[in-house]
Amino acid sequence: MRSSLVNRTQLRYRRATRWALAVLLFVTVGTAKTYGEEAEWIWSPDHDKTEVPVGSCYFRKSFSVTNPTQASLMIAADDSYELYLNGRRIARGEGARKLDDIDIGELLKRGVNTIAVRVRNQRGFTAAFAARVMVKEDGQEWSSFSTDGSWKTNLRPFPLWHTSIYNDFGWRPAQSFGPLGETAPWDLEEGVTKEQTDQAERFQVRREFRVERVFDGADHDSKSLIAITFDEFGRIIASVEHGPLLLLDRDDPQGPLNKVSVYCDQVTHCQGILALNGDVFVTGDGPDGKALYRLSDTDRNGTMETVKTLVPMRGEDGEHGPHGITLGPDGLLYVVVGNLSGSDLPYELDSPYHDFYEGDLIQPRYEDPSGHAQGVRAPGGVVIRTDVDGSSIQIVAGGLRNAYDLAFNQLGDLFVHDSDLEADQGMSWYRPTSLYHVVPGGEFGWRSGWAKWPEHFVDRLPTMLETGRGSPTGAAIYSHFMFPEKYHNTLFLADWSQGRILSIRFKQQGSSYTANSEVFLEGAPLNVTDLEVGPDGGLYFVTGGRGTRGAIYRVTWKGKVPESVTDLGDGISEAIRQPQIQSAWGRQNIARVKREMGDEWDQRIESVTRSGQNPWYYRTRALDIMQLYGPPPSTSLLIDLAADESELLRAKAADLMGLHTDDATQESLIELLDDPNRMVRRKACEALLRADQSAPLESLLPMLGSDDRYEAWAARRLLERLPIDEWRTELLSTEDHRWFVQGAIALMITQPNNKNAQAILDRFLALMDDFVSDRDFVDMLRVAQVALMRSDLSTDDITVFREQLTEEFPAGNGIMNRELVRLLVHMQSDSILDRFIEFLDSDAPDIEKLHLAMHLRFIKNGWTKEQKLKLLEHFDRIQQNGQGTSYTLYVLAVTGDVASTLTANESLEVLARGTDWPNAALGALSQLPSELTAEHQDTLKALDQELETKQGEVFARLRAGIIAVLAENGDDDSMTFLRQRWRQFPNRRAMIAMGLAQRPEGKNWPYLVRSIPILGRVSGKDVLESLQTVQQRPQDPEHLRQVILCGLRLGGDGGSVAAQLLAFWTGEEVAEHGQSWQQDLGNWQKWFSTNHPELPSPELPQESTTARWKFAETLEFLTSSDGGSGNARRGAQAFEKAQCSKCHRVGNQGETTGPDLTSLSKRFSTGEILESTLFPSHVISPQYASKTVLTTDGLSYSGMLSPESNGQRFLLRSDGQKVTLPVDDIDEILPNKNSSMPAGLIDKLTLREISDLFAFLMGKSHPTVARRVTDTEDK
Predict the structure, then answer these.
(1) Are strands 175-179 and 203-205 parallel, antiparallel or unpaired?
(2) How far apart are the C-alpha atoms of 404 and 382, rounded to whole Å?
(3) In which element (H, E) is residue 119 found?
(4) H or E segment at 501?
(5) What pLDDT does 161 receive?
(6) Which residues contact 254 (CB under 8 A, 6 or more apart)?
(7) Residue 415 gets which letter from DSSP?
(8) 211 secondary structure, DSSP code
(9) What end-to-end distance do the CA atoms of the chain give, in Å?
(10) Cis peptide before 810 (omega within 30 of 0)
(11) Which domains does the chain have, with CATH numbers?
(12) Is the pTM of this model over 0.85?
């Protein structure tokens, strides 16, 4: 049978051509600003800033990229906008106070891209728009193409103004009103001075707060800033993107940060910074690559010159590596790491997060079709902890995607704000941007591709709060007193893409929390990257990222804080009331107080913890201080506090008993497992785990049965540490559903084997005999999945389980159906295929039907032909319903896999409906036999003919696939058909040439030679290589010239192969070994010009700086649906207007001096015709070569010269004028490399007229004469 599809959409080939053609099956047929410059508000120069009439203004910006990997566009407009990229409308919106964030990474193409915007002023007398356009190319930093004076603008453009083809040569440069974020009236009120531009007018913040800028990175060449912290002395340490650490200080405590110095340049691009005990810990790029480093100022000269690597990190560079660092209440360093990185050193075996697994039952996994995180395995993004020497590395939690920062609250609980993958929207595995409560051993279920764990999985923890679209960055807990009480102990979260800072208020619920979110501050722009609370109680935030402008701002409360609050007192009172004790400056103050108190400290700090007259937060604060500064809390103290009336104090005591252990603390913790408060019980479990102590099963059973997922989670983690023999038997005989669910998961984590898996499935069946709630049943389904995934049970081992479970589908619960589908498909439950297919025709939500359809392809047997066709029909129907950018690509991948299961006859049926099911037909091609029958060939040929009028990428892929299959078949009939299609459809010749290259000898050879001028990066290398296998060479030196030109077009993708073909054909050795392709082709250019001076130089044509229409953009337009819809009747008028008719004839219209263009569309592709039109001297037929005639009286004439007739010759000049020359007056005739056809003839045409002209030239209104291609037609 034929090879299967590569990447589920790409056909294989038996030679290198397979890969190149497969690429084509899958893909769609300015100068950057200084790094770090901000976008500007722009408008037409025809209007004054305050006198803009109602109406529209149009803007364009073109720029070139080579290999873009990421790109974003953020836009705001007064009043509304329509946004286009390369002719396609991608967004619309309104409002100048908020930037809309659009991911354009998947929409950019290699080469020139054009952004076009229509902005409407609908009211008032001011208007402007600003766009921040950032592009990152592979291996390079971010580049900016944001709005400024280089953008072009027009008030009354011609049609198609938004397309790449449109020539904006006559458009005027935009006028700039000022930088985004600093310009009235869009960012602040008119009349506000520049010194005041940092006030709240720029930002939308609650009225009782003010915002001021305290540092402008542009003033100090620090550009984009990505992280900050405060050191022990209240100075700011700031990280420059791709640059050093800066130390910022001020002369006036209330003034700007005017003292700036480089603090460390040995480690750069630091995304996490922690100042601790005089050192600075950072995550960044240093001597050992990406790592967690400790920086020290050993010589006390004010710079960090000593660098120690603590935790080297593996993985690729980028935005998904190690990020934020914070000091935990236990005195360890906690670091959050993105999903494309991780510790390069092994984690400790006693890490809280252990025995992690992929968790997806259905294999092989569908990975992200755009390539994100392909092949990345568990645990994904993680939180790790280590000591200040990096001597022990533990993994605390996993299953994150790419959280940027982390923060502990006053009870010692940890939180992260994790990002989403927007492209997954619309799929059942989409994970929104979320806030997570991170507990020891926590699993949050991120996996690559479609394997992400849904929130209802019992073996992952739930989301605390979904925060909508965004790009989470910095996080900070506010434990100062200079904000109103409402914000005390609030978690502030930064959101880069949405330009906002969220305030999160927690409320204890059970063993965890609920959370409410509100927007605290937002701006347009607000490219916020990090947050920190300063010694003055202000909330500081830093801007930058992806090359955008860096600055530091401070938010302060306008009200007056009572002196009773600001006066911390002295002695132990000052230490206890010290704000932000997790900060370096807060710790420094506490250390000072301890030093000043001397021996009195120990007794006084413990007395605070014991006194019931103190509020609970003073007492827990005292315990935190003792842990960090001493004396360490004694076990007797902790045991006493574990019996306190305050549940929060008991929880804190339990927490610390995990660090300070003995037999007495173990006994106390076991007692706390029966505490009336759920948080206390959770903390007790976590403490026992950390102390490596156990508890009796009877103490855990109530918690394992809890409906509180965090409490049950902690108990299950502790159960995993108990000897299995102590609880396995009871688990497998229990009637308690919750105990069974949690215990079964624990059993398959700690002892995954077939015996345990079978026992769990048997117990599940027994429990199903009685009532099981929906929640318990869903969890049991997950238990069964884990049992099957972590064992080697075969389908024969689980026959009874499979048969009973088949009766449950379909259920009335969408989540239940999803989990049933995973199990039933894994167990190959083909007996209910009819029910599955019926479900696809039901009124269930599309997301549920897509979940089922994507899994059905893994059922191997039992399919009827009708069922297969029904499934394929479903995929072709739903692929248009996608939301995220990956939706259609996932559907295409699965469609190809389903089609790969078709029999040869079924494939023929699908192919017969290829115009209706193009995706399925593409997959069906792979199932045709390696040697095609006559019926197969006839079906493919008929389908190819039916597709002639079909437009769109999917049909282009199918046409390419047909060529591939016929080419691989390789018989004479197939090759004859391909040559026929080559002659009929010049625009398909490059693709067909790849097929003909499978047999480059014989009749195919001249076709391949004739195809050289149109070969591109996909087809060029393979065709040139195939020509070197045939002992035949062309006689016309023009073919050598075309090989040189082809090599120049291919560059690194085939330039050297072109040089090899030239040596093969000529027998000459002009290239030296080891040279680059540029040097090789340069030598061949010199050789050709020396040996064939009569021919044009082998150089690629150069665009004229004054030309109205450019080749690449014009060709893109002509091959688009708009460009291909020209009117041939109007095109006849354009033929006259461009003066083509003075030399050329089409049908009966025009002159015959130049080449007849009547059958042009049968001989040349659109690209060849356009190239000859724009660059007439690039390729000249000898019959129409220009001559220079010198007369006896010293005059000179250039143009096409006619043969002698009656003693005269006629010369046609480039302007269409004829000159009569008596033969006796001609002194000399010289060759002329310039065509008599002038360049720029279509500059006088509009874009629509060019479309019409090509419709006329391509023969849409006149009969064409089928002419054979010289020396390439079948004989």
Answers:
(1) unpaired
(2) 11
(3) strand 111-121
(4) strand 500-509
(5) 87
(6) none
(7) E
(8) E
(9) 34
(10) yes
(11) 40-179 (2.60.120.260), 571-623 (no CATH), 1033-1100 (no CATH), 1111-1257 (2.30.30.100)
(12) no
Tokens matching residue 46 = 């025809």
Could you count the other beta carbons within 10 Å of the beta carbon of residue 93? 15
State both tokens at 639.
């045991």
How far are the Cα atoms of 334, 413, 677, 757 from residue 438, in angstroms, in the given order?
12, 7, 19, 29
**Beta carbons of 925 and 911 less than 8 angstroms apart:** yes
Please list the residues that pair with 194 across neighbouring strands: none
Token duo for residue 84: 């286009």
Residue bearing tokens 């995706």: 919
Residues 6+ apart with CB under 8 A from 171: 60, 152, 153, 154, 157
CB 703 within 8 Å of CB 714: yes
Alpha helices in 1092-1124 (DSSP H): 1111-1118
For residue range 668-725, what is the model confidence (pLDDT) as tens digits? 999 999 999 999 999 999 999 999 999 999 999 999 999 999 999 999 999 999 999 9
For residue 1007, the 8-state DSSP code is H
Give the whole-angstrom CA distance, residue 264 versus residue 293. Answer: 12
Tallying the residues shown for the chain, one arrives at 1275
pLDDT of residue 1183: 59
Q: Is 162 helix (H, G, I), strand (E, B) or coil?
A: coil
pLDDT given at position 34:
44
What digits encode the pLDDT tens for the residues 190-204? 544 444 444 445 688
Token digits of residue 713: 């989670």
CB count, 10 Å around CB of 880? 9
Q: Which residues, including other chains, have CB under 8 Å from residue 1002's CB and lie 6 or more apart?
A: none
Name residue 475's beta-bridge partners: 493
Tokens of 170: 């006559």
Residues 6+ apart with CB under 8 A from 1236: 1143, 1154, 1184, 1186, 1198, 1199, 1200, 1212, 1213, 1214
Q: Comparing C-alpha atoms, which of 58, 64, 69 is closest to residue 103?
A: 69
Helix (H, G, I), strand (E, B) or coil at 413: coil
Written as six digits, the tokens of 661 are 């252990």
**Burial bucket for residue 268 (CB in 10 Å: 0-12, 13-18, 19+):** middle
pLDDT at 1089 over 60: yes
For residue 1080, count other CB atoms closer than 10 A to its CB. Answer: 22
CA distance 1050 to 1056: 9
Of 210-224, 545-559, 657-671, 1069-1083, the one with minimum mean pLDDT is 210-224
Q: How far apart are CA 681 and CA 674, in angstroms?
A: 7
Number of H helices and E strands in the chain, helices first, is 38, 44
**Coil, helix or strand for 261?**
strand
